[in-house]
Amino acid sequence: MIASHLVVPADITVSWADIAGLDAVIQELRESVVLPIQHKDLFKHSKLWQAPKGVLLHGPPGCGKTLIAKATAKEAGMRFINLDVAILTDKWYGESQKLTSAVFSLASRIEPCIIFIDEIDSFLRSRNMNDHEATAMMKTQFMMLWDGLSTNSNSTVIVMGATNRPQDLDKAIVRRMPAQFHISLPSETQRKDILKLILQSEEVSQDVDLNRLSKLTNGFSGSDLREMCRNASVYRMRQLITSRDPSAAALDRNNVRITMDDLLGSHL
Ligand code: ATP
């Protein structure tokens, strides 16, 4: 069950090169996580500069939190356990307790490793009176296992959480994540960088104006921009397929190129 969510670095398909507009976050993660993990032997001599045992990525949906987590693992040569919270919380207490221990002991065996928890707030939100006793105990157990990583200065296991609702997180959890990054909706300049990256592998017509597109896409996330480009590509291909002579049309490179109109389509 856990193994199906475990990815080795060679199989992680994203790297920093697949992320646009987030250079500052990447630079900080490179310094705080990637370097200490890559140069573990060197960094063991420093008590002051150690990889954090917890990293929190927060911000609106579709802005690249999961992408960043995976790329960090790839760049640092870490394994990546994508912990599906539903699997933990769906189990009855005894089972979820065993599973939680299994995740941490697996991570320690295969380190360096990132345990990634998407929507970490749904699992480790503020404790309250309505919490089921089993849920409260599971959170406590999770925190104890996590603390075990901190007491072992040689450990290269990092818990990385992503959330759209950082305010809902238990304060005790936030304290365990000293490295925190806000990944906001992209600015106009960032949108231009993202569009450039997404379209670089496509055939694009000369009339495509990235400056205008980035102005028109205020409020779009990276994921929205990707979807917009995908729809434009689907539209272009459909036009070719339904044209009277598809083979001739496909041979003409100009017809394959995504145009500004395709991109503007129904979105803008
Ligand atoms: P959620 O909160 O919904 O889980 P998320 O913040 O984790 O969202 P991702 O799943 O990382 O977002 O992003 C979704 C997709 O959007 C990515 O796979 C990628 O195609 C695209 N994307 C988002 N942000 C960027 C970016 N900065 N650069 C390049 N692509 C991006």
From TrEMBL:
Keyword Thylakoid assigned: no
Lineage of the species this protein comes from: Eukaryota, Metazoa, Ecdysozoa, Arthropoda, Hexapoda
Main subcellular location: mitochondrion
Positions in coiled-coil regions: none
Annotated compartments: Mitochondrion outer membrane
Keywords: ATP-binding, Membrane, Mitochondrion, Mitochondrion outer membrane, Nucleotide-binding
Domain AAA+ ATPase span(s) in chain numbering: 51-189
Lipid bilayer topology: Single-pass membrane protein
GO molecular function: ATP binding; ATP hydrolysis activity
Family that this chain belongs to: Belongs to the AAA ATPase family.
Protein name per the record: GD22279
Any Gene Ontology biological process: extraction of mislocalized protein from mitochondrial outer membrane
Gene that encodes it: Dsim\GD22279
GO cellular component: mitochondrial outer membrane
Keyword Thylakoid part of the UniProt annotation: no
Domain of life: Eukaryota
